[in-house]
Each structure stands twice: as structure tokens, then as C-alpha cells.
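Reviewer comment 2.1 asked that we show a complete input and output for one of the modelled complexes. We chose the magnesium ion case, as it is the one discussed in the main text.
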Amino acid sequence: MSMDNNIVVFGKGGIGKSTISSNLSSVYALQGLKVLHVGCDPKHDSTLGLVDGELIETFMDKYTRIFGVRDHAELKPSDLIVKGRLGIDCVEAGGPEPGVGCAGRGISLMLEALQDLGVLKEGGYDARVFDVLGDVVCGGFAAPLRKGFAEKIVIVVSEELMALYAANNIAKSVKTYSSNGVYLAGLVANLKDGKVEREKLERFAEILGTRILEYVPRDPAVRKAEFARKNTVVEMAPKSRFAKSIESLAAKILAVRREDCPIPTPMDDRQFYKGW
Ligand SMILES: Nc1ncnc2c1ncn2[C@@H]1O[C@H](COP(=O)(O)OP(=O)(O)O)[C@@H](O)[C@H]1O
Ligand SMILES: [Mg+2]
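Response of the prediction step:
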């Protein structure tokens, strides 16, 4: 039976979204779930760890190459999806070269194409994991929320103020689009400093009306896996602290229910900067 979890991982650039989301996809796949992993960052590196270090052809490149000559209706899902390790279906939105054009448009186009081809249809996957850049206030980045594709929103933060600022902004979009059925499942604290006081983060989560789902430790195993460009940490170092925390997070995300997630209560900018 399909569980149909649509999970969207948001967060500031460089915070650890691709690392965490690709490891989440691997955990689910290792558990035998059917997984779709969609990279929605123009950096197009979300699926790197899932396809043995290959940069897959992005949707935007395919769009110019195939869609220009063929009608939308003639396309099959396999035209857009690349099979990754562990049987994970991978899609990478891609985007224009830095400084040229709008990356958000690519994300919207990709989601529309995936929808038209039935890839987002209920029952198709047990888990769909979307990895979305979240420090840009741009319609494209909110597309997964706007169209009602998303369901469970997870925001990756660290103890750094700007990461929390981005998270507060993302919570504003979740609030705006909550009538589409999206809800804030919780925050993931990917700490830079292991000794950091957790009270501040707990307080932040409480103000937003949400919770910290998991504290993910800094772990050298992450860098090792990244440099090996082959495996995600949960495969390469399943006993590492990082892998254990992702396993725990993966289970908590599946267990979160809409009823447990009130509409978020983000701060306005004045309140945010004033301190809390
Ligand atoms: N928990 C962690 N421990 C060690 N390194 C990490 C951890 N989380 C992220 N990193 C490193 O931080 C960098 C940015 O992570 P990435 O997942 O690419 O961020 P994002 O996708 O949010 O831009 C990467 O080089 C990654 O290896
Ligand atoms: Mg990334």
C-alpha cells in the first residue's frame, strides 16, 4: 500500500538540505519504500549522492532539448526521471546560469510537467522528497507550496541567526499556503557547533508553533561520503551519529500527522530582530 508522503525540505542555502534530504531518501529506499527525489535548487546537486556522483541532466536542459521538438503529451515519466541507486527515482530541476534568468520559473515548469505526466499522482510513490532552496523570496521557490503538491514541510536550520531568519520567512509561506493542505511538520537543527545551547532553538520553534524534530550532529562521515561521491552517509557509514540521527528523523517525519501541526505563527521582522 502506498503511503504517499510528500515531504518538502526547505532551508537557507548551505544549511544541509541536500545532505539531509538525499540521506532521508536513502533511508526510505533502504526500508523498501518507493521514493522520488526531486532537487529544486538551481545548484542541481541534490541527487549527486544518489546516482554515484553523476550530475544528471536537469529538467531545464531536457526542457530545451526535448520539449522544444516534442509535444508535452508525447512524453513519458521516464523521459524526465533518472534511476538512482537503491531504485530511487531522481529529478533535478536545474535552472539558468547564475545571473541569467529566473530559477523559480524552472521549478514551476518542472512541477507542472511532473503533474501532467502523472508522476505526482496519488499512489505512485510512498515518499516524494523535494529539496528546495528557501532563502529567496521568489514565487518559484514557493511553487511546491502554491500548487498544493507539498504536504509535510520540514525546515533545516542551524543555531545561526540568518538560518533562523530564513526559517521564519519559510514559515510565513507555509502559513500563507496552509489552505492548500501544507503544514509545518517541524524543524531540523543541523548544528554547526555541538556545544550550542539548545534552549534558544527550542524557544524559536515554540514561537513558530512548531517543534525541533531532530538534532543532527556535525559528523566527519558526511564529508567522507561527499568526497567519495558515491554513497550517502546512511549507506557508507550506517553506524555513524549522523546516519542514526537521519534514521530517527525519517521515522518521525513519516509519523507526523496534519492534526499535530497547527498553522505556524512566524514573527514579523521587527519582532525577529528585537530578540526573543
Ligand atoms: N551534519 C553535517 N556534518 C558535516 N557536514 C555537513 C553536515 N551537514 C551539511 N554538511 C556539509 O555542509 C555543506 C552544505 O551542505 P548542503 O547539503 O549542500 O547544503 P544545502 O543543500 O542546504 O545548500 C556540504 O559540504 C555538507 O557536506
Ligand atoms: Mg542543496
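The chain has one domain: 5-274. We note this here for comparison with the apo prediction described in Section 3.2.
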